[in-house]
Amino acid sequence: MIVTTARLALLTLILALGVAAPAVAQLAGTLVVGLVAEPVNLDPAQVTDLNSNRVGRRIAETLVTFPEESTQIVPGLAESWVVSKDGLRYAFKLRKGVSFHDGTPLDAEAVKFSIDRQINPEHPFNKLGKYPFANFFFGNIKAVEVVDPLTVEFVLKEPRASFLAVLTAGAASIVSPTAVRKYGQDYALTPVGTGPFKYASWDRGQRVVLEKNPSYWRFPLKLDRIIYRPIVEDQARLTELLTGALDLIVGTPPDYVGQLEANPKVTLLKQVGAHVWYLGINNQKKPYDDKRVRQALNYAVNKDAIVRDVLKGTGSLSVGPVLPKTWGADGGLKPYPYDPERAKKLLAEAGYPGGFTTTLWVPESGSGMQSPVAMSTVIQSNLKAVGVNVSLQTMEWGAYLAKLRSKEQELFALSWMAGTEDPDMVMYPLLHSSQWTPNGPNRALYKNEKFDEILHQARLTTDEKKRADLYRQAQRILVDDAPWIFIDHEIQTAAHAKRVQGFKLHPSFDLRIETISQR
Amino acid sequence: MRRYLARRLLLLVPVLAGVSIVIFMVLHLSPGDPVEIMLGSQATQEDRARLRADLGLDQPLHVQYVRWLGHVVRGDLGRSLWMKRPVLAEVLGRFKATLILTGTALVLSTVVGIALGVASASRPHSVLDRTSTVASLFGASMPSFWLGIVLMVVFALRLGWLPASGMYAPYGGGDLRDLLAHLVLPAVTLAAASVTIVARLTRAAMLETLSQDYIRTARAKGMVERRVVLRHGLKNALIPIVTVIGVQAGYLLGGAVLTETVFAWPGVGTLMVQGILARDFPLVQGCVLVVALSFVLVNLAVDLLYAWLDPRIRYE
């Protein structure tokens, strides 16, 4: 009987293994994507996380959008637009003949409805959701007016040249008013838009399934179905890709990059994103109110080593907040070189020949934070080499953000995902003095009147060339003022099976799988 | 018996109330604010204040607790802050997957653990006994997330025998065979530590029982050894074993959190991790409440099992 029990156990195990042998028969036209976490909610106006955004943008679209490889503005659901001379009125002509997945035609009313439900507390559907970024994105909108069925006009409270970039945000997606009325609070679970794919089903914790929109207005689709699977564990996601159970994964951890590059079964993609990772300095606190000290810190940190050894090449050196090689970037600027001697000299000039002691706050993790603790540890040892003794304090993300509003910070690690290359979307919030925390995200408490004025002028100027000139001036001021230690722009990674064709990573961090075909 | 059962079931109320207060306090007093986490670094002060008021988080803690409790007694666990979905439906929807995983792991650890323990005790210091001692030490000291990843690399990545994650194939599957294939790795991972504990305890309990006089008598009567070990030995050693299995059931429910995360198993564990990371108070409270309830019920079942195993035990 003992023997029987043991045998039984063994038999169970063999049986269990026998049922195994995973059947990875690929279904033509179906793409399986591994996400790092489950989408939370698919109402674009309520989305706050990248995974939901990456799925939701397949379903609902915006008036203006980005082309394949950049974040310049191109027509989306609006085929053209006119901006009034004073920069206060934006009139959009909508594309004719586009309809939502439920058959509702796309018209000016739908556009008005999509924005009004977020910004107008009196709107009948305002109370059905929480619109976290309504103020950040749309606080400047006075009214949305229906001119005729295919023309809609946005009236602004004050001019803002980056308004078109604002309208590329996920929250500015146009949703089917019929569906919102029908589903109410549950619209977030049954989203309806005009996008290349329509929502099909969602098994919690397992998969979100989208199906092809056969009458998509932009181009015919080659995929029939996308299945998104949330797989939190890196090794599991990687294994599923290598065994053929997944076609595409995003967010490969730096340590796996080499392994994937060497693997003949998969293709690894890299693309620098509209993101910036910086080490903020409290510009108002001693000794950081002295520009020479801030510059010294920039010379002291070995950014190359961080990108090479910690990020394994998944970062591109930064010279400031603006993404290099975009229209607003100043191509003539060079990152601060690694020069500890120069750093020591500057510190001595500023009156700190023996260095000083300071604290560096670091979140354990957070959206867009790459490898915050490892990166900060390198920075800590670099600074120690020039006499600056840094004590590292790691915190949980939410607690960290709250603590930064105390204005007690000395040094702090932070990042920003603008998702667009428009310099206004990163420079203004992070560095204009009107945006000092807690009113805005300028947590370095940086203030330079000339810089402020240039940014303000750039908002009033609609001519892109003139704006670019202004932003270049602003960037030169920043490099000299060194309000942060400039570190890197994240290089996003994705890996896919060889049979996947036609996929490109996008600088906005979107995951545009509608361009994919399978071999 | 019936009165005992009623009393035990009534005791559930204070136990669950205690659990809910503890979890409420731990969540609200630990650093991290759902509003900060949801809105990230881009939010404005007004956005934060508005969302905090919308979610009722601007109220004092005791007001929030009483309000939550008021809903719970009416069977409403609230809506998840993040997902905006009703918590009860969400948790129950995930509970089935957790039950399948922990149930399988429990059966696995009971069957394999008792078999190993009995075999070791009936031939103490044999090769089998020594091997199982070493294996137990190994099994008990391996963290499950590590073991899970090792098993995944070996059986999914290298050998390609088993799928690496999830509960069903993304498409085409959905039958029992598909489920079993996906169940093997997480169930073995989850059961590993419990198997060793059950095996060690069974061995100790059996050794003690087998040294009793009545066993010698049974052998002297010429009874077959297998019958001596199982009928006279195991049956009398079962009480401590059942106790430990009951404890293991609770341990497995808790351990499922890690295992589910490693293997993307769509149970309450993955949901709870998601909830904790987002400081989604109603969601985490709902998950903990359901897990605590099942733990208490398992313990009750174990207590009732004693009477069946040993007729001398009676409940008043």
Tell me the layout of helices and strands.
The complex is a heterodimer of chains A (519) and B (316).
Chain A lengths: L1 H17 L11 E6 L14 H10 L4 E2 L8 E2 L2 E6 L5 E6 L13 H12 L14 H5 L2 E8 L2 E6 L6 H4 L10 H7 L13 E7 L3 E6 L12 E6 L3 H9 L5 E3 L3 H9 L3 E7 L2 E7 L9 H10 L2 H8 L4 E3 L22 H10 L6 E8 L8 H14 L2 E8 L1 H8 L6 E7 L6 H8 L17 H12 L3 H18 L2 E14 L2 E2 L15 E2 L1
Parallel strand pairs in A: 1-10, 1-11, 15-16, 15-17
Antiparallel strand pairs in A: 2-3, 4-5, 5-7, 6-7, 8-9, 9-10, 11-18, 12-18, 13-17, 13-18, 14-18, 19-20
Helix pairs in contact in A: 9-11, 14-15, 15-16
Chain B lengths: L1 H28 L4 H6 L5 H10 L6 H13 L13 H36 L4 H15 L2 H15 L17 H35 L2 H8 L4 H38 L5 H10 L3 H29 L7
The secondary-structure element order of chain B is HHHHHHHHHHHH
Which term fits the overall shape of chain B? globular
Query: On the 0-100 scale, what is the average pLDDT of chain A?
Result: 90
What is the averaged pLDDT score of chain B? 85
As a percent range, the share of helical residues of chain A equals 25-40%
Helix content of chain B: over 70%
* β-strand number of chain A: 20
Backbone shape of chain A: globular
Derived structural class of chain A: alpha+beta
Largest sheet of chain A: 12 strands, mixed
Please tally the β strands of chain B and state the result: 0
Distance between the termini of chain B: 6 Å
Total number of helices of chain A: 16
Describe this structure in words.
The complex is a heterodimer of chains A (519) and B (316). Chain A is 31% helix and 22% strand. Chain A has 16 helices and 20 strands. In chain A, strand 15 (356-363), helix 12 (372-385) and strand 16 form a beta-alpha-beta unit. Chain B is mostly helical and 316 residues long. Chain B contains twelve helices and no strands. In chain B, helix 5 runs antiparallel to helix 6 (127-141), helix 5 packs parallel to helix 12 (281-309) and helix 10 packs antiparallel against helix 12. Chains A and B meet through helix 1, helix 4, strand 10, helix 7 and helix 13 of A and helix 2, helix 3, helix 5, helix 7 and helix 8 of B.
